[in-house]
Design goal:
4 strands
Length: about 900
Amino acid sequence: MGMIAALDAEAFEKASKIVKKRFMEQLDLDDVPELRAEYRKKLSSLELQLSGMVQVKLDGAKRAMDVIQAADDQMVAVRGEFEGMHELCRKAGEQGKLLFDAYPRLKIINRARKNLERTLKEVTYYANLPSRVDHLVGLLEEQPLQLRQVYLEGQQLELWRDELLRELKVQQRVKSPTKPPSSATATSPTRIISVGDRMQATFGIHLEEVKKLLDAIRKKIFDNISNCFEIVHEDPRILVATLEIVDMHEAFQKEKASKARERAEKNLESVEEAVALSLLEDLNADVVTKLKQKVDERASGIFAQAQAQAMQAIASKAEEVDLRTVTVSKQQQQQQQQQQQAVFSAILRAATRVLLDLTYLKADVVPCFPASYQVMDTFRIQYERHLVKEIGKLYQRGFPNLDQGELLQLMEWLSYYNQEIVNLGAVKPCSEFIQALSVCLQEYLVRVRVQMTEWFTNILNRVQEVALNSAGQPITSTPEDFFNIIHLQVLVALSKLSADNMCAVIVVCLNVIKAILEETLTTLRAKKLQHAVSSLSTKNPGGREGGGSGDDEAGGAGLTLEMLCATVNDYDRLQEKIQEFREELGRMGKLGVDQLAMVDAAVDQVLDGFVSIADEANSGCTQLILKDVREAFAEELFVPEWEENIDVMMQRVAMTFKDYYNDLSVWLPPFYFAKVVRDCLEKVVALYLFTLFRRGGGKGKEDKVNAKLRPFRDPLVVAQKIRNDRQAMTVFFNEYEEELKQAGLRETAALELQLLVLDNIVDVFEEGVTAESEVTRLLLREFGVWGVDALMVISFLRGDKDKARGELREDLTKYWEKIQRLDGGGRRGGVAGGAAAARRDWSDPPRVVSARFALSPFDSDVDAEAVVIGARRPKSRK
């Protein structure tokens, strides 16, 4: 109805146009009757034509229905016949050969039916094979996820190809004559062509198409696995499906090989030839090989790209340098340095990109691969071949082109890489990089050692500016400068190095400090010795040459009381700072227990060095304090005028000590001030006794002449004056009882025990020297192997006769040997040592020191300053 309405509308529109065209004026209306008659004739003609056409169509439809009905009847008849044949075939299958034996023609019909069915099917399929292959190849590119379906179809084609190739081989010997062409004469020979050749001619194009499809499938598999990074990013299912196909193909190949063997054994053919004819392939091995090649190409590309970028950056910087006014040599130097830095950065940047590849591989690619591929190890091993080669360029020729920052950056990267690949599943770190890290670490430690030694040496050799802290103690900036350097190295190591390497750097820094401390201690001792030489060469108070002829430069410079106190305070603060440093390392949490134990061992050695220098500087304070005392003793004590003088020498000494102690109690920490007090007590007693023994002739021959030796006039007066000095020392040092206890003299009456030797000497001066008495025993034990010499000196100073002294020496020697046997045999030098001491002259130095003196007072090379510092002064050059 809708169509008819549309046609009516169209007819009406056309009629309207005709009317408008034909009847434009009033006169045109006169032609209406004629026009109407004309159109009625046309309408009648059209109706007759339409009626005829409809009748023709009806007749055609009736004939078609008749044909269809006849065909249907024939199809029903044929279907019935085929059903009957199918039933007979079924019965033939059930009854075996019985039915076919009974009906031979039925057997032929069944065979023909099967052959025809198979032939039609294969002809239909393989006639369309080229177009089908083109479709499948296009499908691989357009729809990657269809790879499985394409592969399965390719499997079927591969089986057909293999079967056809076997058939071609069988038919190579079957010959068939061909009909001569129409133009050939009757005498032309008949050309013989094998069946195999005819099959090859017929199916050759199809074999090529199958190969084309199989090659496309293989290429797609290789491309998918080689480009696994990109494929995973696009769709991981593609990679998973590809790997599944590889496994399917492996099983398919094994099945082909198995069937080929079975067929060959059944037909008594060559198994090797049959298997070879199956065209087997190890796709899995080929995939791994392609994957390794792709990894090598990828790694080479990464490093090549990084190097190209570096060269481009160098070129751009070179153009910038050209615009400046610089010399040619400087420009070349800058360009060379920039090139080295650019190459270094490019290699590390590319190496880091490789490591990022491994990280991405572990996270996204590895889950797609079966474990048998060991894809992580495959990538890592191939990558490491390139990494070892490229990174090796930075250190295998030494390190002249790497500054310390670049060397540290290289160490950081090597350590980071080895840690990361273990985290990524590697069994162990890269052995080449472990060795490289060791080489780099040794070079870095050498540089740190040299640098730290230079810095510390510069700090110690600069002019030290002494300032007072808030407590009024002299100090310098040495401790802060020391630990600013150490903290700088530790911060760098903390941010760049592993815990083991950081520990190594810290230990090196501490060992450098230890070596510096040993040198500092040696230098300080040398200064003290030089100061002793300088002090003995002049009468100028303070022990320095009045003319300024170079004694300060010889080693005494800087040995002032304030500087020594500043040294004590500095190294005391260094002890505190290094302990704080150790605690800070523990709080960082980066070092393990074993590493902290190594640091503790190094810290303990450094602490010992700090303590040794502080003690040495502290003893230097005692040396300077006793300078005035030593000079006064040498000029006034035990000289002939001393016997007549009513002054008490030790009262004057106490006043000198008091002046120094007022300053030192503020300048020094309490512990070190206490040690100064005790050192002064022990040293002043030693100086007192040393001066007494030298007054009695305990020096070389030249010194004996100069000393104008003679006994005291009145031993009782001497005894009383010594008693007065002893009492003055007791009164003075009693004021410092707490300091003496802090310094270690904690026993009851400790001060009395220190001064007991003076009491014993007083008793000997008053009562005389006897061979076997309690006082003699105490003095022999006090002075050790040269105790006999000491008692003989006192006997001389008392004025005893020479004959009596000769017998006295023998008696004292025997008594000393007896004491040694009772004490356990030679705790103070042994019997032999005592006998030797008894036989030698007074001036001969004993071989063993005593508890009172560090050096023998009877050694001609020992002077009063040597007694104070505990070391012989260098002999003067002639």
